[in-house]
Amino acid sequence: MAFPLEEWARRVWAERDTAAIDEMCASECCVHSAGPQPLRGPEQYKQFHQQVCQLLSETRLDVDHCIEQDGWLAALCTFTGRMPDGREASMRGSIQARIVDGKVVEAYDHFDFVGFFMQLGMLPADTLERCMSGRGVRAGG
Q1: Mind listing the pLDDT tens digit for each residue in 7-36?
Q2: Distance CA 131, CA 141 (A)
Q3: Which end of the chain offers a freer environment for a tag, N or C, measured as fewer CB atoms within 10 Å?
Q4: Are 78 and 58 in contact (CB under 8 A)?
Q5: Which residues sit opposite 72 in a β-bridge?
Q6: Which bin fits 17, alpha (ψ -120 to 50), beta or left (φ > 0)?
Q7: What DSSP element (H or E) covers 30?
Q8: Rounded to an integer, what distance in angstroms lies between the CA atom of residue 93 and that of residue 116?
Q9: Quick count: other Cβ atoms within 10 Å of Cβ 116?
């Protein structure tokens, strides 16, 4: 059975329906996403979702390409968000997920959060260059 990624995108990100997270993620799901630690279970994913939705007044996930084979899904997506003041940013990324009985049990999301926050003016425009040169980005300068 194919995983309904377009439905996930619509319900979770456009409509912000957290019930969809419970319906489409297995109780033992493990999502490797932004941050150093994986999100374990639907509750931790809902906490991440809530943080994103508190920051952005509008969110959208577009599925650009998707393939499924042998219980795995691979997709190229574009995430777009709008701040309450109207600033908008987008980032391309990929999702790889293992699906069992129509639910996500394991996922690896790779999106350009640095570029996204640079577009929103929350990180300096030269963040990547600073980090690649070893200077890093420090608070207040």
Answers
A1: 999 999 999 999 999 999 999 999 999 889
A2: 13
A3: C
A4: no
A5: 69, 98
A6: beta
A7: strand 25-32
A8: 11
A9: 20
Which residue, chain included where needed, has tokens 């997506």?
A: 77
Phi, psi of 23 (to 5 degrees): -70, -35
pLDDT, one tens digit per residue, over 30-65 is 999 988 999 999 999 999 999 999 999 999 999 999
Structure-token match 């300068």, residue found? 141
Burial class (CB in 10 A: 0-12, 13-18, 19+), 82: middle
Beta-carbon contacts of 28 under 8 Å, excluding residues fewer than 6 positions away, are 40, 41, 105
Residue type, 69: Q
Residue 16, CB half-sphere, CA atoms under 13 Å: how many?
Answer: 13
Question: How far apart are the C-alpha atoms of 103 and 29, rounded to whole Å?
Answer: 9
pTM higher than 0.85: yes
